[in-house]
Automatic annotation (TrEMBL):
Matches recorded under CDD domains: NAT_SF
InterPro entries for this protein: Acyl_CoA_acyltransferase, Gcn5-rel_NAT, GNAT_dom, GNAT_YJDJ
Coiled coil spans: none
Pfam families linked: Acetyltransf_CG
Protein name (database record): GNAT family acetyltransferase
Amino acid sequence: MDLSVVDVPERSRYEVSADGKVVGFSAYHLIAEGVLALPHVEVEPAFEGRGVASALMRDSLDHIRGRGLKIVPICPFAQAFLERNPDYADLVHTG
């Protein structure tokens, strides 16, 4: 399965595609200068348990880091991903 993740700013989300078909997304919105809230991550049921949501989180967080932004993880999946991947802890907004 070939996965790709792209930022779709006009829809305020990162989308993950499997073999060219969008199968999930991670929504975001700006809550303060340089800070994005991550309220929802969703993957089609047929793709759950196959690492798609984790790939979506990794690629979107890498992109967010590259933009010099911080995050507020609201979605339970995003929170759990950050707990399992402490190398992204520096992205969490603490203010």
